[in-house]
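I had to read the description of the data format several times before I understood it. For illustration, here is how one protein appears when written out as sequence plus structure tokens:
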Amino acid sequence: MIYFEDLEVGAETYFGSYEVTREEVLQFARKYDVQPFHLSDEEAAKTHFGRLAASGWHTAAMTMAVISRHVVEHEQAGLGSPGIDELRWTRPVYPGDTLHVSGKIVETQPSRSKPEMGSFRTHTTVTNQDGDPVMSFTSIVLIRRRPG
């Protein structure tokens, strides 16, 4: 189990990858982001996207899928997150792209009011198969301290 005391500022983690499919882009857009450039090749061609593009919120959801699977697999004593800062979508994500998710711990902080936990900030970068950044953000993560 990975606890607060095991974290080091500057440590980097590769969380994994995610293959973006056309059907999933359309399915997400139909349900959560019905803007035409997420639903139609013809409408997307009229925009700066040039072709069907995933919603930024879909990119965030795919990223969360990669991170959460990694955290569960590596048994981190996580307690959720109160939020993220500085979310940026820097390049479109298209069907056929493969997203790669990595993070770097930039800060750790023991809780002043709850001695059984602490928090850390991770700068997360998502790149496509060409290594081009498509999204970045800084997350705040709550985590248990080592018992005993």
